[in-house]
Structures are given as structure tokens and as C-alpha cells.
Design brief:
The protein is an alpha/beta fold and 267 residues long. It has a single domain, classed as TIM Barrel, CATH 3.20.20.140. The strands form two sheets. Strands 9-8-7-4-3-2-1-10-11 form a nine-stranded mixed beta sheet, sandwiched between helices. A two-stranded antiparallel sheet has the order 5-6. α1 links the parallel β1 and β2. α1 crosses α2. The protein is globular and about 45 Å long. It binds zinc ion (ZN) (2 copies). The site of one zinc ion has 5 residues, from loops.
Length: 267
């Protein structure tokens, strides 16, 4: 068994609320500095930068930093759901479906034409949702408003993630905004979440302590924590430790379920 330190909730410059410094090379270097072994890239409603971060990690660290393809879906109830997927292709499939469900999903809502979007860096400075390559170059921009809600219900979003072999995590359940509890006022018996995430801010305020965790465990889900990084300084500020036989998605899922000797715990 191997012990891994994982931060499974990191945004890139594709998310409009994230720093423009959240580029693949910068993210990988920050992860190495913080001693992380596994990360998940979870931008709002899109997985368009997952491939670039995966390539940058392979190039700079070899197998030392495993990147799990992910997405943070905003449901029509304005609940954030983390989708962790087994492959890049699965993440892109979920992303494509979610993007198509956004308001103005088939048009360029910020006024950029398809031609403008295919232009290189700097040609559309007004759009902050950067699509980048592994060398930190901007190759395009997402014109649809990623910070908005998709038209998927909570059930539909979780179904979509599971349909593609992924697991759904109820994001930052201790926060009032954009969490299951905050938006619905209760934790529904369905859909089938695989885990619930304690926010970095909550963990910093002591919510990783046993007396707090007991309250969150009443929802019957394994608990993890991620940084929800929107800037480089936040990467790794809240993590989950995993005991697995190898650093891969399948082992991650088994560890969350506590199968065999595998384990996970908020670090
Ligand atoms: Zn969120
Ligand atoms: Zn987030």
C-alpha cells in the first residue's frame, strides 16, 4: 500500500473566478512544492483544461503527480457537484453535455464569433475563461458563462457523471453558498453521491476535528477535503490522504469506499 496526498478540487484559468496564473505549468510546480501526489482539475461546468494539466504533469513529474480528470457542475438548484472521472474522454463527454445545457449553450453569449474564438492569445482580451495548452499558452476562450447554472437537476448531474463511470462528490457541504445543504436545506437520499467534501475554509476553522466531522457523517457519506484553489497560493491548503495500492482512479474509488486495507482521511 502507498500513502498519497491528494487535492481533488483545483480550478484553472478557465474558471472565470480563478486567477490568470492558474496555468498548467504553474499548477504542477505548486503541487510539487506542496508535496501532492494526486490532484483533480475541476473547473466550473467544463473539462477543457484537463488535458493540458495532465500533459504538463507527465512532462514535469513523470508518474509522480497523477491528474484525475474532473469537473464542478452547477446544477439548476445552484448546487455544486464535483465529478471525478476515470479518463479524459469520460470527462470531456460529461463536459460536452453540461456545456450544451448552459443558457445560450449553442451561441457565443459574450459576442465572440467562432472565428474569433479560434484565434490565438490576446485576440479576445475581454473573455476571462481561458483554454490553454500544456505550455501555458492560451489557445482559445470559452464564450459561454461557466459560472452560471446548467439546466441539469442535481439528480441529472449525478446521473451524467455516473453514466460515464465517474463518482459524484457533494462539494463544500459545510458552506452556505452552492452546497447541497445550503441550497436545499436538507441532504436528499438520492442522488447517489460517493463522498462529501469539507471546504478548505471549513477545515481551517476546525471542521476537520472529530466533533465537527460527526455532524457531517450523519449524511452517511465518506468525507474528503480539497482546496477549491482559485489561485496558486491556495493549492494544497486542504487535502485528503489516501492509502491505495497504486495512484489511479480505480484505487481512489476503492479507498473512498474503504475496501480492503484502502483508506482515506482528511489531512
Ligand atoms: Zn464550488
Ligand atoms: Zn470549486
Amino acid at each position: 500500500m502507498t500513502a498519497l496526498l491528494a487535492d481533488l478540487h483545483i480550478h484553472t484559468a478557465l474558471s472565470p473566478c480563478a486567477s490568470r496564473q492558474m496555468l498548467p505549468g504553474n499548477i504542477v510546480r505548486a503541487c510539487r512544492q506542496r508535496g501532492l501526489n494526486m490532484i483533480a482539475i475541476c473547473d466550473h461546468n467544463s473539462a477543457a483544461n484537463v488535458a493540458a494539466v495532465t500533459e504538463a504533469a507527465k512532462r514535469e513529474t513523470g508518474p509522480a503527480l497523477k491528474v484525475i480528470p474532473g469537473i464542478e457542475v452547477t446544477t439548476r438548484e445552484e448546487v455544486h457537484v464535483l465529478g471525478l472521472l476515470p479518463t479524459l474522454e469520460a470527462a470531456v463527454s460529461v463536459s460536452t453535455a453540461v456545456l450544451a445545457s448552459l443558457p445560450n449553450g449553442k451561441s457565443t453569449s459574450w459576442g465572440y464569433s467562432t472565428q474569433q474564438l479560434s484565434n490565438p492569445v490576446g485576440s479576445h482580451p475581454g473573455c476571462r475563461q481561458w483554454i490553454v495548452d500544456a505550455e501555458d499558452r492560451q489557445t482559445g476562450a470559452e464564450p459561454r458563462v461557466l459560472a452560471g447554472a446548467s439546466s441539469y437537476s442535481l439528480e441529472e448531474a449525478v446521473f451524467q457523471i455516473r453514466l460515464h463511470g465517474g463518482i459524484a462528490v457533494a462539494a463544500h457541504i459545510d458552506r452556505r453558498a452552492f452546497s447541497v445543504l445550503g441550497q436545499l436545506g436538507f441532504f436528499p437520499g438520492t442522488p447517489q453521491f460517493s463522498a462529501a467534501e469539507i471546504s478548505a475554509a471549513g477545515a481551517a476553522r476546525g471542521r476537520r476535528e472529530e466533533r465537527w466531522l460527526e455532524a457531517f457523517r450523519q449524511h452517511g457519506l465518506p468525507l474528503i477535503s480539497g482546496s477549491d484553489s482559485h489561485c496558486l497560493e491556495e493549492i494544497g491548503c486542504s487535502c485528503t490522504a489516501f492509502l491505495v495500492s497504486e495512484p489511479c482512479f480505480a484505487e481512489l474509488v476503492l479507498a473512498i469506499r474503504g475496501i480492503g486495507a484502502r483508506r482515506c482521511a482528511i489531512a
